[in-house]
Amino acid sequence: QDELMRIPLAGIVAILSRNLPGVASEKSVYDFVLRWADLQYPNLEQRREILSSSLLPMVPLARSMTNVILIDQPSCIINFSLKREHCSGSFPSGSMRSPPFYRAGHGFFLSAHRRMGPSNFFFLIIQKLEDKGLVGGTLDYEIEVKTTPSLEFTTLWRRTTTTGCRQGFGCRVPWPEVIPDDSPFFIDDKLHIRVHVKITPQP
């Protein structure tokens, strides 16, 4: 890990271009890319540009989810879209992750996955990057999806917490409600998600 962290951008791109048969999971590749970029590019805007243009498009776990980031101080609004075919389980790892987004010095990403078995749900979870510590202050977040026939965003989950956040937070939707051909959640075979995150620091 230490040696890999010192490899320049061109070397990382060359490694990601391979099939990487010895890698345990796509999640480990995704996590490594985020850690490498965080170390090599301390400037947030530069790091975001390198991740979005050069690295994450080569990571299958992140390639299935596209996003547009809108910064509205002191909160951020992020729009994501997921294809129906990916939501239905075609991604081999069982989950998808967005490119990271940042608010008040903390990094987050959106994770989408389906859990089979007796609890057959589709999960949308906002998760923190692992190495950024506890979120202090008040955290407001909301997850919305665009639905038919109104083509307006509908709130799936909204919460305010003052207990800090170290892990993930989000919502689940019963899978039989998500995937049918007449599902209100898909427009042109895409699931459109909007995430609001606001962090108000402690006084």
UniProtKB/TrEMBL annotation:
Q: Where are the transmembrane segments?
A: none
Alphabetical list of SUPFAM superfamilies matching this protein: TRAF domain-like
Q: A GO term (biological process) for this protein?
A: response to red light
Q: Which UniProt keywords apply?
A: Ubl conjugation pathway
Pathway terms, separated by semicolons: Protein modification; protein ubiquitination
What cellular component terms from Gene Ontology apply here? nucleus
Protein role: May act as a substrate-specific adapter of an E3 ubiquitin-protein ligase complex (CUL3-RBX1-BTB) which mediates the ubiquitination and subsequent proteasomal degradation of target proteins.
Its recorded name reads BACK domain-containing protein
What is the originating organism of this protein? Aegilops tauschii subsp. strangulata
